[in-house]
Amino acid sequence: MSTAVSTLVTTDLPLPGRRAGKVRDLYDLAPDLDGRPRVLIVATDRASAFDVVLPDAAPGKGRLLTTTSLWWFRRLRRLEIVEDHVLHGDVEAIPELEGLEVEVFDALRGRISVCRAVEIVPIECVARGHLAGSGLAEYREQGSVCGLPLPPGLRPGDPLPETIFTPATKATEGHDENIDFDRVVRELGGELAERLRATTVELFEAARRIAAEQGLVLADTKFEFGFELGPDGRPTDRLLLADEILTSDSSRWWPAEAVGHGSVPRGFDKQPLRDWLQAEFDTGRWNKQPPGPRVPGEVREALLGSYREVAVRLGALPDRDVVSGT
Q: Of 91, 121, 145, 278, which is least packed with CB atoms within 10 Å of its CB?
C-alpha cells in the first residue's frame, strides 16, 4: 500500500475479504457484539468517469469524499428518515489495525468508514430536481426525463415542477441503464419499490433544504440502500442507507447565484473531468472503454476544487485548503 499522506491509490491491509470498487477498497471486520458483520470502507484517490477507472489519481479526493459523506450521514440521521450503515470513521478505533506502522494510519486517517454489512439493493435510486445532464438531452428530444413527461418550455438548468425518481440498474460491467418505475416493481416488488422511491425523494428534498442555507443547489443525486446482514450472514428486513452520499462523486451541485439564467451552471461536481474526457472521445483519442487516458494535472485539480468547494460551503471542512479530514 502506498503510505504517502497526500495520495492513496490502493490498499493492501492485513484484513480478510478485500474487494475493490471503482474508488473504494472494502475489507471485512470482526462482527459486533451481537454477531452482526461489519466492513471497513477506504476511500482512495482513484478517479473514475463514464464507468472507467482512470490511470491518474486525484490527491486528497478520498478524504474530501469521506469527510463530506460522513457529514451528510450525521445531518440526515437527525431527521430519522431512514437508518444508515455508518458506525464511525475513527481509524484509531479499529482493533484489527493495531500495531500497523504510523505511516499506514496517516494514509488511512480521514478516509475510512466502519459500517454495518449490507446486501445492496441492485437499483441506483436517483432523484432529480433540475433539468440537466442526460435528462436535458432527453427532454429536448422527447419532452420527458427518463420517460416521465414534463411541461413544455423548461430551460436548461430550470427546476422541475417536482422532484422525480429516475432509477437505474447497477451494472457490474459496462454502464448503468436508466429504467422505469414499473421495472423496479417487477424486480423488487411493489412494496419495496414504493419505499425506495418515497425515501429517495424525502432524503433529496431534505438535503436540498439544508444545502440551500449554505448557498448550494442540489440538482440531482443518487442513493444506494441495502438490507443489513444478520449474524448468519443473510439479509434481514432492516433497510439502511448505504455507500457514500451527496458528494461530488454522486451529485450535481451548483452555486445558488448561478441558477435561473436559462443555462446549466458550472457546478461543483465531476463535470470538469467529464468534459475533458468527452473532448478526448469527440476527437477520437479515446473510445470510453478501459483503459482510460492519462489525465492532465490541471483537470485533476479542477476536480478536487469541486469536492473542496462543496465541503467548505457546507461547513464540513473548516478551511478551503484542508483535505485531511482529521
A: 278
